[in-house]
Specification:
The protein is mostly helical. It has helices at about 5-15, 20-40, 55-85, 100, 105-120, 130-155, 160-170, 175-190, 200-205.
Amino acid sequence: MARAVGKWEAERWEEGALPIQWVAGKVMGVLAFSLMTVLGAFVYLPLPFTPVPLTLQTFSVLLAGAFLGKGGGALSQGIYILMASLGLPIWAGGGSGLCRLWGPTGGYLLAFPVAAWVVGLMLEGEDRPDWPKVLAAMALGCFMIYFLGLFQLSLWNHWGWKRALMLGLLPFWPGDLVKLTVASLVYRRFSHWGFRSHSGRRNGK
């Protein structure tokens, strides 16, 4: 992955001197995190009491938003969803097609771009945010995945919220807590790498 855009490079970008290099790096980053989400889908453990499987995808979704920013992070996850919807067998467990999106676990998948966008938004404009802020951003990203996932899960199965929480959140929260903690530490350590926009900080927005 290419080095982060620093202050001098950001100034050069504004002057139009670095568009090809920066755009190429951004594209590579987006594709890399799409691939990470694919690989996370193959770390797959089905559970007999719920239609929701255990995977490592949350880890890559959160890091995509942090390293790529809101736009790049959301795009990387949108590409993953598009590829699987078009027939590549890269859903968790090797499935493919649009049917997965309309099924009981589709809300979790549709939340991937939303979660990456939220993480990127919360970290926007900061070169090296404090670890508590990174952790909070990723926790909010996880919340978005659970919220949309549980909503569709409960509608599909005609479950009340209590049953949806019991089968769609509680079995996964301990593992996701570990994933978001590790992801926040990874980003904190390597936050000087990435392709987040610096426009917000430079323009005072």
